[in-house]
Design a protein that fits this description.
- A hairpin with a 6-residue loop joins strand 2 (57-61) and strand 3 (68-75).
- The chain has a 7-stranded mixed sheet, sandwiched between helices.
- The protein has a single domain (2-160), classed as 3-Layer(aba) Sandwich (Aminopeptidase), CATH 3.40.630.30.
- It has helices at 12-27, 32-41, 93-107, 122-130; strands spanning 2-6, 57-61, 68-75, 78-84, 112-118, 134-135, 148-154.
- The longest helix has 16 residues, at 12-27.
- The chain is built from 4 helices and 7 strands.
- The radius of gyration is 16 Å and the shape is globular.
- With 164 residues, the chain is α+β, with helices and mostly antiparallel strands.
- Residues 2-156 form the N-acetyltransferase domain.
């Protein structure tokens, strides 16, 4: 059984490692820069050592040692990160974490959520589109050697939801 909980300070290293594996799996097929950095410095170099993921949520296997299987991290109306560990993919964790992230953003009173996705990552773009996200027409600057695409989704703020 899968459980969700907020990231704790002691989870930071495990979450950074999870995100690094996710970056490598998602971006290495089309990013020479990601492949080069990982080969030169290891996957830990793909995520800053100072990133603590404050306010993020992780999916963990209930009853097991709290090894994160996936993470979602939001800030304001931005879905900053959503990664599922490659061996844990295909179990519905991405969908679960996405819904948690969307609820977090709506609870802050935002009517619209936004995210940036790698343009060459057709799988991620299709995942978000299947869950109601659409291309915003914006091309945010990227951190890597590939283009990013902005996506948006209309949300119902928490104070306007039907309590039933």
């Amino acid at each position: 059984m899968i459980g969700l909980r907020a990231v704790r300070p002691e989870d930071a290293d495990a979450v950074r490692a999870l995100v690094a594996r996710g970056i490598l799996a998602a971006y290495a097929p089309f990013s020479p820069e990601v492949r080069r950095l990982a080969a030169r410095d290891g996957t830990a170099a793909l995520v800053g050592a100072d990133v603590a993921f404050a306010g993020a949520w992780i999916a963990v296997e209930q009853g097991a040692e709290a090894v994160p299987l996936g993470v979602v991290w939001t800030s304001g109306n931005l879905l900053r990160e959503l990664f599922v560990d490659p061996p844990a993919q295909g179990r519905g964790l991405g969908r679960l974490l996405l819904s948690v992230g969307e609820r977090e953003i709506a609870a802050r009173g935002h009517a619209r959520a936004r995210l940036d996705v790698a343009a060459p990552n057709a799988r991620a773009r299709a995942f978000y589109a299947a869950h109601g996200w659409r291309d915003s027409g914006e091309a945010p600057p990227g951190r890597w050697d590939f283009a990013m695409i902005g996506m948006v989704k209309a949300l119902i703020p928490a104070d306007r939801r039907d309590p039933a």
